[in-house]
């Protein structure tokens, strides 16, 4: 029996952690088939692989509690497709009388002196289980595969402290995720109401002090659109790690902005080859291949830059009273891809054609109202980005603790 200690632990604990097989730590039972009891909505949630892998977002219901799950039991997924994301994913039952255990899911009940929360932490997507996935055939964990899982355990008091820490982190992550989701839904609601629909001259919702009818203009009337043409395409061997002329690609787009941290560069002659795809601050960039319709607004550009293939450079015409930020927000909204989808001849859109882009209708209020709308949507984006960074930081913090608070 091997005794180990983690890299990071709470003050007051110094005992060695002890290696144990799961059979020493928990009791095991299998779930049962629910095909005949599935209903559209019912009193019991079926704990299947989809429920566990989506953290409860995707649910099926049963009218019969065929294999009841009790509070603090840990469910673990036993079967998944090759390279799947569900195998060995876990769910700790938060209350009794709500969940019923499906087939190909096991339930583990922690024995005396072992914490259910700690048990879930050491089991969840553990590399031991992932090794059973050969990337070719269906992965199926047997009872013996699960019960032979071996890892180190501290005293029950330290297990509980660790479990409480991660429960607190998970609650913080969940609360911040809910805030983020709410902000995105609020923005979505404003997008649906702040632009005219179905031929209307005014939107459903607008700022006080504005009453004039809106116009509708084609994008080609408001802006120029250019992309790198075929014969100008760059070879990857021409991408430089440093230089005086930046090369922007669709993979550099991040949350509506350009992420300059991993930018490539090109030689001067490649930059000068086509002035129409030389970008500047206030350029609006749209991907036309790969992930279609990603949009970025260029700000903070400090040196000459050109575009790689697969991206449109959209520039507001200089003689027009158009707020480029307003145009950016409208192009970033779902309206463009919906329009492109309606214009497609069937099947999945694989390429955003310029002949679609030039015809895309843009609703236009007065310049003052454009400023107001752009400001509101920019504030939403900034707040969403702030919450996303906070959420990412919490997830990284949890990841760091997971790496340091468990004996290897």
UniProtKB/TrEMBL annotation:
Native organism = Leuconostoc holzapfelii
* Keyword annotations from UniProtKB, A to Z: Coiled coil, DNA-binding, Endonuclease, Hydrolase, Nuclease, Restriction system
Asked whether the UniProt record includes DNA-binding among its keywords, one would answer yes
Gene Ontology biological process terms in this record: DNA restriction-modification system
Residues in Type I restriction modification DNA specificity domain copies: 16-184, 212-395
Q: Which InterPro entries does the record cross-reference, listed alphabetically?
A: Restrct_endonuc_typeI_TRD (IPR000055), Restrct_endonuc_typeI_TRD_sf (IPR044946), Type-I_RS_S_subunit (IPR052021)
Show the coiled coil region(s): 166-193, 377-404
Q: Could you name the domain of life of the organism this protein comes from?
A: Bacteria
The record's family statement is: Belongs to the type-I restriction system S methylase family.
Q: Does the keyword Hydrolase apply?
A: yes
- Under the GO molecular function aspect, what terms does this record hold? DNA binding; endonuclease activity
Q: What is this protein called?
A: Restriction endonuclease subunit S
PANTHER family, per database record: TYPE I RESTRICTION ENZYME MJAVIII SPECIFICITY SUBUNIT, TYPE-1 RESTRICTION ENZYME ECOKI SPECIFICITY PROTEIN
């Amino acid at each position: 029996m091997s005794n180990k200690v983690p890299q990071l632990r709470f003050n007051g604990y110094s005992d060695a952690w002890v290696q144990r097989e799961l059979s020493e730590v928990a009791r095991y039972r299998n779930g049962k088939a629910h095909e005949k009891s599935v209903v559209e909505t019912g009193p019991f949630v079926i704990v299947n692989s989809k429920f566990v892998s989506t953290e409860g977002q995707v649910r099926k219901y049963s009218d019969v509690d065929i294999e009841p799950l009790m509070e603090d039991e840990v469910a673990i997924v036993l079967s998944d497709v090759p390279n799947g994301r569900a195998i060995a994913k876990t769910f700790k039952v938060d209350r009794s009388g709500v969940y019923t255990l499906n087939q190909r899911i096991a339930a583990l009940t922690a024995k005396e002196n072992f914490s259910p929360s700690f048990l879930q932490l050491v089991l969840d997507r553990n590399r031991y289980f992932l090794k059973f996935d050969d990337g070719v055939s269906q992965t199926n964990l047997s009872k013996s595969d699960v019960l032979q899982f071996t890892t180190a355990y501290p005293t029950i008091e330290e297990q509980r402290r660790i479990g409480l820490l991660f429960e607190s982190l998970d609650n913080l992550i969940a609360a911040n995720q809910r805030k983020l989701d709410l902000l995105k839904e609020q923005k979505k609601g404003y997008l649906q109401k702040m632009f005219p629909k179905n031929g209307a001259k005014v939107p459903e919702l607008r700022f006080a002090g504005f009453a004039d009818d809106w116009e509708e203009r084609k994008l080609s009337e408001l802006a120029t659109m250019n992309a790198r043409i075929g014969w100008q395409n760059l070879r990857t061997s021409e991408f430089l790690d440093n230089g005086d002329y930046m090369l922007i690609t669709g993979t550099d787009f991040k949350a509506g902005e350009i992420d300059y941290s991993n930018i490539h560069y090109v030689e001067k002659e490649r930059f000068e080859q086509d002035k129409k795809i030389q970008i500047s601050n206030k350029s609006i960039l749209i991907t036309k291949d790969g992930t279609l319709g990603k949009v970025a607004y260029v700000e903070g550009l400090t040196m000459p830059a050109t575009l790689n293939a697969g991206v449109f450079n959209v520039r507001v015409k200089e003689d027009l009273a158009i707020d480029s930020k307003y145009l950016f927000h409208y192009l970033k909204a779902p309206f463009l891809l919906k329009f492109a989808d309606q214009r497609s001849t069937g099947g999945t859109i694989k390429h955003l054609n310029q002949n679609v882009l030039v015809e895309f209708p843009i609703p236009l209020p007065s310049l003052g109202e454009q400023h107001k709308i752009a400001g509101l949507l920019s504030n939403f984006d900034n707040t969403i980005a702030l919450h996303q960074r906070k959420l990412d930081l919490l997830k990284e913090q949890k990841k760091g603790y997971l790496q340091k608070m468990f004996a290897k």
